[in-house]
Amino acid sequence: MNSVRRINEDYCYVGASERSPRLFENLFPVPRGVSYNSYLLRDEKTVLFDTVDRAVGDAFFENLSAALGGRKLDYAVVSHMEPDHAATLAELVLRYPGVKLVCNAKSANMIRQFFDFDFDPLLVAEGEELSVGEHTLKFIMAPMVHWPEVMFTFDERDGILFSADAFGAFGALEGSIFADELDIASEWQDDYLRYYSNIVGKYGAQVQAALKKTAGLDIRMICPLHGPVWRGELTRLLEKHDRWSKWEPETDDVLIVYSTVYGNTERAVAQAAAYLAERGRRVRTINICTTDRSYTVAEMFRAKNILLATTTYNNGIYPAMEYLLDDIAALTLRDRRVGIIENGTWAPAAAKLISAKLDTMKNIEVAGVLTVKSALKPEQEAQLQELCDALIS
Ligand code: FEO
Predict the structure, then answer these.
(1) Are the C-beta atoms of 55 and 35 separated by less than 8 Å?
(2) What distance in angstroms lies between residue 162's CA and the mean position of ligand 1's atoms?
(3) Does the CB atom of residue 24 touch ligand 1 within 6 A?
């Protein structure tokens, strides 16, 4: 039994999904699982496009064997060496000793760093081509999307772009592998943004470079390493990634991100949310004490106007808020308007420290600050409204 899916006449999907909830990169919750995509071309030569994570190695090798149908494996293209796609490379070479690895020089060095097997790769560089029969594969470098050695492959005849981690998403593929077989808008969209913002988000400039480099190609299908395969109508997918990689927000809604220790900051947040809603703005509120950071990061990529509310803690910023700010600084989030509510009973200091962190980021405007001492007082209502008005002005 195998789970091979046909992509078109010559290509098939031989990847596999991990469905049990676990942490991707030992860091990100993936309650909908994650897929590790791999593709096989059967032409005069056979060509594999990447292997998979060790977690799904058995399913992958079963698929590969079934898809090869007794043929030998001639080539394996290595798009990059991150182990969620390359961990089973050594086993591939053991099982298919005649296989020629196709990669760039940086990947070859990394293969030697990760593994001890001997190999004589076919080294390819920008724009070089490999003919494997009816199909010719063209190699396009996409450095830092999101490792330095990342390489796309384009099959001009079929218009297929093998895009490595670009255009990927969290979420297991449950038999249906094509985006047009799935409910992307309601079931996948959030995981696209959470994947993009947390995994690739830092490298917007490099994503832009890759988008420009591939803009002239007649792309009819995109085969990423995670998530659905896209065919036919690609505009929506390309536009989303163009927007995200320019750090353009998707909405004018207000995002409120807060931490609370005893509920007083949360009550101030509730008042701000009510006022903003009265002003006609849709509000999304996230308690970062109970929400994994990756979800908040994604929402901060989505929103233009963000209200941060937190307490002072050990003369610093409450840890969950500090970690979040460090994350978005590392991911180089920019071009946002931020309001700050700080709370502290005897020496509130969070706002100053948050502002200093935001100062290190590009084009983050601090619209205003409200200091709460223990609990928001009725006489501070006007100040709170002023802060909210400044945030949405
Ligand atoms: Fe999905 Fe860069 O690995």
Answers:
(1) no
(2) 13
(3) no
Instruction: Tell the CATH topology of 252-392.
Output: Rossmann fold (3.40.50)
Model's pTM, two decimal places?
A: 0.96
Q: Which helix (H) or strand (E) segment is 138 a member of? A: strand 136-141
Work out which ligand 1 atom sits closest to the CA atom of 36: 1
State which ligand 1 atom lies nearest to the alpha carbon of 146.
2
Mean pLDDT by 10 residues, the chain (393 residues): 94 96 92 97 98 97 98 98 98 98 98 97 98 98 96 98 98 95 96 98 97 96 98 95 98 97 97 98 98 98 98 97 98 98 97 98 98 98 98 95
Residue extents of the structural domains in the chain? 5-245, 252-392
Task: Select 5-245's CATH number: 3.40.640.10, 3.60.15.10, 3.30.1540.20, 3.30.1330.100.
Answer: 3.60.15.10
Q: How crowded is residue 262: how many other Cβ atoms within 10 Å of its Cβ?
A: 12
Decide whether any atom of ligand 1 lies within 6 Å of the 225 Cβ.
Answer: yes
Ligand 1 atom nearest the C-alpha of 168 is 1
Residue 30 CB partners (closer than 8 Å, separation 6+): 18, 21, 22, 23, 24, 170, 171
Is residue 85 in contact with ligand 1, taking CB distance under 6 Å? yes
